[in-house]
Amino acid sequence: MSASLSIRGGVKQFGGNTALSDVSLEVAAGEIHAVIGPNGAGKSTLFSALAGEFKLDRGSVHLGGKDITRHSAHRRVRLGIGRAFQVASVFPAMTVAQNVAAGVLSERRRTHIFWSSRALRRARPEVERLLEEMRLAPFADRLASDLSQGDRKRLEIAVVLALKPAVLLLDEPTAGMSPEETEATTRLVRELWRENGLTVLLTEHDMAVVFGLAQKLTVLHRGQVLATGEPEEVRGRSDVAEVYLGGGEES
After folding, report:
1. DSSP states of 18-51
2. 145 to each of 110, 115, 135, 136, 155, how far by Cα in Å?
3. CA dist., res. 204 & res. 84, Å (int)
4. Between 20 and 30 A from 195 (CA), which of 1, 98, 168, 246?
5. What would the pLDDT profile of 172-216 be if each residue is shown by its tens digit?
6. Separation CA 250–CA 40 (nearest Å)
């Protein structure tokens, strides 16, 4: 079940640097919303603020209309915010299936009995379902460290999905992927959104991915919202083309 997500008047400073300056963003329930912008625009800071990885200096964060500004990152996961990082964060010395099982047992609040054969048997149907959904079943017994970049990203998303999020934050989901992996991942995100009823907020450098997925687009520039709207509307703005699509630096 999806939920809306918003940040209102968000301000975050690191020393003398203002990473977010009065940023407001509304992501409707069930929407795929993309955030783009040049390096240093504040995209990663925005995602970290939404996920609760640090506190805003000013402003608020709301999930499904509920103020979660003071909630920890752990509490936000329990409430339904799942985040996949630019560099996939998985347990490299564990198998693919064990990684997903860790997510399933965490959602069930059973991580303290992770090595219990009984707990793992009970988790197996959900683990197998997620492996199939994420096209990872053939790699179930392979160590996560042996996966390709694209497969490792899909594994991280599988672990996040095991937590049953209402909102999925995807930070550069196709970074480092081949064209074939990028195309497959784009299709997969679209399928996950449609089949699981998720709200998806993503940041992505590949404009083909952005315009292939996003129903709404926000452009950040120097820690501020430059534009928000439907992708084609935003792409047609001259100020956006100047700072990002046409002349901004991005890596």
Report:
1. EEEEEEEEEE-TT-EEEEE-STTSSHHHHHHHHH
2. 25, 20, 17, 14, 11
3. 12
4. 98
5. 888 888 888 889 889 989 998 988 889 999 999 899 999 999 999
6. 9
